[in-house]
Amino acid sequence: MLHPLEPIYALQKKDRRLIKLMREIRDIPQRKSDIEAQLAGSAQKLEIALDSRKHTEASLKELELEVESLKERITKYKNQQMEATTNDQYRAFVKEIGGVEREIGEREDKEIELMEALEKGKAIVAECKEKLAGEKAGIAGELAELDGRTAELTEQLEQVKSDRARAAEQCDKSILQKYTRILNNKRDFAVVMVEPGNHCGGCHMKLPPQVANDARNPTKIVGCNFCGRIVYNPVP
Ligand SMILES: [Zn+2]
User: Which residues contact residue 111 at a Cβ distance below 8 angstroms, ignoring those fewer than 6 apart?
Assistant: First the structure.
């Protein structure tokens, strides 16, 4: 005699497949938006790098203008110095010129720092551009692949659904109800095999000998005392 849990066990295999397919289909939009988010992140990094480079360039330009105007001031002082009529006046210009030269020196040191920063900034921009271009090229393929996968999985899902409906027709109605209730509760397995040493295949606790024995009996449907899953022992 066919054990009534045999068709239920077969049905469970279809349900497992169904659950797996549905999960994978459900997760695809998230995978797509993760890919898109990564691309958006890389685009943002490039924006930041470009902004930073622009800022450095502007600061450098500003410094150059300052140096230029300081140099003009020196030229002016030197002209005035030549027209000095007293030693005191002359020395005052020397002092002024020295002060301006120091200011120029400070700005020129800063210019060198900024030029180094600009070189680094340019390298970062180039790196970001390359990364983004690579990701853009890859993303189209990845997204298309995921769309293809969705179509494939949806087709498989329809097939498994109709197989499942046929398999359900082979099942005892009251056991099927019990099975469905447990599966909805446990979300993984409702029927489990008795494992060697009379352990429940669901929670792995040791079953009482009577339960392990009854799990073989086609006229009895027994549950694990610990997790409530239906235990099945097809070994004669
Ligand atoms: Zn159990």
Answer: 60, 63, 64, 67
